[in-house]
Write a structure and sequence with these properties.
Helix content is 63%, strand content 2%. A two-stranded antiparallel sheet has the order 1-2. By secondary structure, it is mainly α.
């Protein structure tokens, strides 16, 4: 088994090294509107510090964004109302639509060399969790599962994560949150601080992409439904801790929306992105032909299996993942816009959670589960 662990560890490191080599050749001038806007947010943070949350177009007095528009031959570079990923607000401001988290991370690195370090840092976190999973595996099948999933997770950091700068940090947070979720539910006495930390991480992910708020849905269902029939203080404190963590984590986005849109609950997105849900077979067709469909199947398969045969903490993790998958898939599959990365975060969060749940479960429970299932099956045989 040590040889198998070493082999899969080397495979993950080889994929990581290959990714880093490929990333080192990336250009920050791809001409993609989203890229330029994230870089503008980073530029504002580097110029104004925390006041960079204010993305009003009038703050482009150094012509940074105008210069980016000229580089890609954008015809209406002089008119902020026509700028990509910017929207006019009722106050008269023209502001950027994206939450501030991705720009903040990019601002940590020197201008002109921001994207590659961001992706490398996120990839190192994902690879570290993959190696941890391989090291924790106790049986040959679990080593095989952890190794294959770890290799896939590291590979995904370059495709489809490269499609948007917001995906890489989201993937890293999903890996950490998945590990902590399994750790939280594996304990006999669940830690309120630990679930609060998970909430903080999921809330922080909203600062990269607003739809990441849906990543917390399964946790709210898991913690909230028992409150209907249970009045235990511990149950209430767990839910309160998680909710507080989510709120604190997404505070930068709420502050940015208050500054730019006039209210923490007002959106900076335009009408094209804020649309009512409605199933569109063309959008469903895109998902069926995309790699995301494979990830959806990979996430649903083990989750459904563990709901059926899992016990204890493993089944509880599956319940959280199932609730999350249900809410997120209903939302994104009914959203009339398709991208190659919309459902990647929920698929990866679910897979990380379920994978670590299987690896963390106590050895006694691992050995007893097949026996209990066999006894249950014998009990239903006809006599």
């Amino acid at each position: 088994m040590k040889i198998a662990k070493l082999a899969f560890g080397l495979i993950c490191l080889a994929i990581l090294a290959s990714n880093i080599v490929a990333m080192s050749r990336w250009s920050e001038a791809r001409g993609v509107y989203d890229d330029i806007c994230y870089l503008r947010q980073a530029h504002l943070f580097q110029r104004f510090g925390a006041d960079g949350l204010n993305t009003d177009a009038v703050r482009d007095d150094d012509r940074y964004f105008e210069g980016k528009m000229k580089e890609i031959d954008f015809a209406e570079w002089k008119d902020p109302v026509r700028w990509p990923c910017h929207n006019p607000m009722p106050s008269g401001k023209v502001v950027m639509q994206y939450p501030p988290g991705t720009g903040f991370l990019l601002a940590l690195f020197p201008q002109g060399h921001q994207v590659v370090p961001l992706y490398v840092a996120a990839s190192l976190i994902v690879c570290g969790l993959a190696l941890l999973g391989i090291a924790m595996a106790r049986t040959l099948p679990s080593i095989l599962g952890a190794g294959l999933f770890g290799a896939l997770a590291v590979y995904l950091m370059i495709n489809p994560a490269k499609a948007s700068y917001s995906v890489a940090p989201t993937m890293a947070l999903c890996a950490v949150a998945g590990f902590l979720t399994a750790l939280w539910l594996a304990r006999d006495k669940r830690s309120t601080l630990l679930i609060a930390l998970i909430g903080l991480l999921l809330g922080a992910s909203v600062n990269f992409r607003l739809p990441n708020a849906l990543l917390a849905a399964g946790y709210f269902l898991f913690l909230g439904i028992p409150l209907v029939w249970s009045r235990k203080p511990s149950t209430f404190l767990q839910g309160l801790g998680f909710g507080a963590g989510v709120l604190v984590g997404m505070a930068p986005t709420l502050i940015a929306q208050a500054i730019n849109a006039g209210s923490p609950l007002a959106t900076t997105y335009g009408s094209a992105d804020v649309v009512a849900p409605g199933f569109d077979f063309a959008v469903l067709g895109h998902y069926l032909r995309d790699m995301q469909f494979v990830l959806i199947v990979l996430a649903i398969g083990p989750t459904a299996w563990l709901l059926r045969v899992g016990e204890g903490s493993v089944r509880q993790v599956a319940l959280v993942a199932a609730g999350n998958l249900l809410v997120n898939l209903v939302f994104f599959l009914s959203h009339p816009i398709f991208t190659p990365y919309y459902v990647v975060p929920i698929a990866m969060l679910s897979l990380w959670s379920v994978s670590f749940a299987l690896l963390i479960q106590p050895e006694e429970a691992r050995q007893a589960a097949p026996l209990r299932r066999a006894q249950a099956n014998l009990g239903v045989l006809p006599r």
